[in-house]
Write a structure and sequence with these properties.
Length: 538
């Protein structure tokens, strides 16, 4: 008998409820309609509000996602890492010369990570959207297999995670709270490292790559992406991905988080100008992909940004392309469109943008956004590294080698006057002095003429320079966006409740694991934490 989970969640007051008419991009709608993958979930609205999830399954971790795509994937990545690293000792018997010797090996406590993102409520034509789970519509299944399911797993015990994952927080939370980062956390360790001092943070980032490549491989509209890339000569160009999260009229929470800009056109113009100056610092002739002409892929939440960027890059001799889609009149699509074709096409288009950004040669985050820091950042930094995915299997722990990526600069961050680019994920995350000294961080900055722009705007390149000024006033030579990638806590949280529950609880039991909103780092000494650009090192 399956467990019944009653979810009582509320839509945050700060999120817009505006709804706009939508013209669905035909390719997206066609794929959405062809990939109706029924899953045994009770009827459930897209925001998972006051609904039941009833399902028969092996022992599992069930992750309930909320809010936007970047937010959901950042939390899902934490849930995935928790599932992979919460292990127990399993006895195995080996026959042969050892006379059926029994040994103990570590294995994941649960064999399945199940994902629930709600459904697109309503019925249109022959489509019952109440039976179509969003995650399954995108990726063909809502169950990620972590290991082979054994007889002892068939008790339908559920570890329930709602939004936040206990024991994980965004990197920025550790900065703001001045959590001391151990020295061995600073060294990027590969997935093959067996060092006893291996950092759990790099283990988490390696697991993220594994998960995100699995999602890319299982995306149900992959043919739409392939056709778009073929139409625009994707592989015949050096592709630069630009993400502009302008807010599209959002207020309240978006403004409170200091994510808005007063003049989007001016900000985008400055960003493109800095990108042009950065490209001018690169050699004009060397091995591919630099030998190939540039093309820019733009992902944005605001339709008028597309034409503006196209005009700007045309003066540089660079074509800008964007995936055809509709945008809400105001706000974000996951709040504006909750029904039928609009809802599913909105989620599909959002993932297509994210997936295409991850397949560019270099990603430029014009503003801080989880959208770029999750899948795109992980995968552009991973190019050329070994990954653990298999195209033809739901098991996300099989081996596959990543594609070769010869481009040095992988990920860039912009602010009002600067553009900083990073050669690797360790340089991006910690901004250590050696990363500057080794030329793994490069910043193009606008020269301050104290208001006098009669001679036009001038830029200079900052390189081989420490990130912070000598008086440590957090005035960084490189741009520092908030770190939204989630990492295991320091010290690591005690997860023993999970194996204890799985091994001792009765069949069909449910363990609510953690609060929907983790309050641990939301205040520091009773106050809202202030933004800190630098890490506190132990």
């Amino acid at each position: 008998m399956a467990a019944t989970l009653v979810l009582l969640t509320a839509t945050p007051w700060w999120l817009s409820q505006s709804v706009a008419a939508m013209v669905v991009f035909p390719d997206v709608l066609e794929v959405v309609q062809k990939t109706q993958v029924p899953v045994p979930l009770a009827k459930n609205k897209h925001n998972t509000k006051k609904k039941k999830v009833v399902d028969a399954a092996p022992n599992r971790i069930l992750y309930i996602g909320q809010f936007g795509l970047g937010h959901r994937l950042s939390k899902l990545a934490a849930a995935h890492h928790l599932a992979l690293t919460t292990t127990t000792s399993m006895a195995t018997t080996r026959s042969g010369q050892d006379n059926n010797a029994t040994t103990a090996t570590a294995t994941t406590v649960v064999p399945v990570l199940q994902v629930h993102w709600g459904t697109c409520g309503g019925t249109a034509g022959n489509h019952d959207y109440d039976s179509q789970e969003i995650f399954a519509a995108l990726f063909g299944t809502n169950r990620l297999t972590l290991r082979t399911v054994g007889n002892t797993d068939l008790e339908t015990k559920t570890v329930l995670l709602r939004n936040d994952v206990l024991g994980y927080a965004a990197g920025q939370a550790y900065k703001n709270a001045r959590v001391a980062i151990p020295a061995h956390y600073l060294t990027d360790t590969s997935s093959s490292s067996s060092s006893p001092d291996k950092s759990p943070w790099w283990s988490k980032l390696n697991a993220d790559v594994k998960l995100f490549r699995w999602l890319v491989d299982h995306f149900q509209a992959a043919e739409t992406v392939r056709k778009f890339q073929e139409r625009h000569g994707w592989h015949q160009h050096t592709m630069i991905g630009l993400h502009v999260r302008a807010g599209n009229g959002e207020d309240a929470h978006f403004i409170d988080a200091a994510r808005g800009v007063s003049n989007t056109t001016e900000y985008v113009t400055r960003t493109v100008q800095r990108l042009q100056q950065f490209l001018a610092t690169l050699p004009t002739s060397q091995e591919p992909p630099l030998a190939k002409p540039y093309k820019l892929f733009l992902a944005t939440d605001q339709a008028n940004v597309i034409a503006a960027v196209q005009r700007l890059t045309a003066t540089m001799g660079i074509q800008t392309v964007a995936f055809p889609q509709s945008h809400p009149v105001a706000g974000v699509s996951y709040q504006a469109w909750k029904q039928g074709d609009q809802c599913l096409a909105g989620w599909t288009a959002a993932w297509v943008d994210m997936m295409l950004l991850s397949q560019t040669d270099m990603v430029v985050a014009a503003m801080r956004s989880t959208f770029t820091q999750i899948v795109p950042l992980a995968l552009v930094f991973d190019r050329g590294a070994a990954t653990n995915i298999n195209n033809n299997s739901n098991n996300i722990n099989n081996n596959k080698t990543g594609d070769f990526h010869p481009w040095k600069w992988r990920f860039c961050e912009a602010d009002a006057t600067r553009l900083s680019c990073f050669a690797d994920r360790q340089a991006w995350l910690f901004r250590l002095p050696e990363a500057f000294a080794q030329g793994r961080i490069r910043t193009v900055t606008l020269i301050d003429h104290k208001g006098d722009t009669s001679n036009g705007e001038e830029f200079t390149v900052l390189e081989n320079k420490n990130n912070y000024s000598n008086n440590n006033n957090n005035k960084a030579a490189a741009v520092v966006h908030k770190v939204m990638v989630h990492f295991p806590d320091i010290p690591a949280a005690d997860v023993s409740a999970i194996p204890n529950f799985v091994q001792t609880a009765p069949a069909s039991a449910t363990l609510p694991y953690g609060d929907r909103i983790n309050k641990k780092y939301r205040t520091v000494q009773g106050r809202k934490p202030i933004f800190r650009a630098d890490w506190t090192l132990a």
